[in-house]
């Protein structure tokens, strides 16, 4: 199987996924193997939502829309053009996946297979319904993928390299357990936004997408703001108010009530609007339904701070502040070449 065959297979997978990525699921006539897979994947979406209360239909479809947009011939070709994948010596790559948002481990799965390796997947119990079904579809559109995709719930054995994602605690375990193997090990990161006080209402509404999508559970979600001294939060609260139905989701509401009670009993100063709280705090990782903020006096000093803390930060959202900034509203729309933790997965896979 050459690189073009692998690309073509994932393009067909993107076409299949596209049927489920809009508000109304719509079956298309020209998608291969729809008779076998369409109704089955609809059922998997239902199971994923029932199994994990954070995986709402809206958020699952949002994730699927991102992947259907990414898995095009143009995107895949552009992504892989800089690499020499013709001389890759196939190995078995173990991938340990997180489960905080739907299909969060798909990029690693894609990277291993598209580069010519075999993949051994250990999924999170929180996100176990979608990927195995998509992997089976992939095997049908390109039979040479059969035997190259394996899922396990057991202890990982017999692999050549590993890509593992988890919390700070599990990352330390991974580093010990996988020592001696080529590895990419990722831990907790959070994303931040830098405001200057001149943002338009549209900018702030777009920022609300970076804050609330996936209930704020992703490493690309903004969990911390840096704002100038004397910043007034009125415009921000107005811009985010259209997200107020989020509090109707039981798991979110429980976290909001709990964290609000903790802050009130601890007599912390905070601002809240009935479904969301903002609190001045130096930490990057804020609890669900909470956004931390910190004041800054000097833009250059803030740039130095963000540079020094780079290992804790996934994305920086701003407008004209940093050369590698993310535009408001775009943190959850990464391109294939936007690597987690800035570690080039394909380069790693070509060098092992």
TrEMBL record:
Key words of the record: NADP
GO molecular function: acyl-CoA dehydrogenase activity
Entry-linked Pfam families: LuxC
GO biological process terms, semicolon-separated: bioluminescence
Top-level division of the source organism's lineage: Bacteria
Keyword NADP: yes
Keyword NADP: yes
Name of the molecule in the record: Acyl-CoA reductase
Taxonomic lineage of the native organism: Bacteria, Pseudomonadati, Bacteroidota, Flavobacteriia, Flavobacteriales
């Amino acid at each position: 199987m050459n690189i073009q065959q692998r690309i073509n297979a994932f393009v067909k997978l993107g076409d299949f996924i596209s049927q489920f990525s809009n508000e109304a699921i719509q079956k298309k006539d020209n998608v291969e193997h729809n008779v076998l897979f369409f109704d089955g994947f609809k059922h998997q979406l239902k199971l994923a939502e029932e199994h994990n209360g954070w995986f709402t239909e809206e958020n699952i479809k949002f994730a699927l829309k991102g992947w259907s947009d990414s898995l095009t011939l143009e995107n895949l070709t552009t992504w892989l053009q800089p690499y020499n994948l013709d001389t890759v010596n196939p190995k078995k790559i173990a991938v340990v996946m997180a489960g905080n948002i739907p299909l969060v481990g798909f990029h690693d799965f894609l990277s291993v297979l598209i580069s010519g390796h075999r993949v051994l997947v250990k999924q999170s119990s929180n996100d176990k319904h979608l990927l195995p079904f998509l992997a089976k579809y992939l095997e049908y559109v390109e039979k040479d993928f059969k035997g190259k995709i394996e899922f396990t719930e057991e202890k990982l054995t017999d692999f050549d390299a590993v890509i593992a994602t988890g919390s700070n605690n599990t990352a330390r375990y991974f580093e010990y357990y996988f020592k001696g193997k080529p590895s990419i090990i990722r831990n907790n990161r959070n994303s931040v936004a830098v405001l200057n006080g001149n943002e338009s209402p549209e900018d702030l509404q777009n920022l609300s997408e970076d804050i609330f999508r996936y209930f704020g559970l992703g490493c690309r979600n903004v969990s911390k703001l840096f704002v100038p001294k004397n910043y007034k939060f009125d415009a921000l609260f107005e811009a985010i108010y259209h997200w107020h139905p989020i509090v109707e989701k039981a798991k979110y509401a429980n976290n909001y009530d709990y964290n609000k009670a903790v802050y009130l009993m601890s007599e912390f100063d905070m601002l809240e609007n009935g479904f969301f709280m903002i609190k001045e705090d130096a930490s990057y990782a804020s609890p669900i339904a909470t956004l931390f903020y910190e004041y800054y006096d000097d833009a250059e000093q803030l740039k130095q701070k963000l540079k020094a803390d780079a290992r804790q930060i996934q994305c920086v959202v701003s407008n004209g502040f940093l050369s590698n900034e993310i535009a408001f509203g775009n943190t959850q729309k990464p391109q294939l070449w936007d690597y987690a933790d800035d570690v080039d997965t394909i380069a790693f896979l070509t060098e092992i």
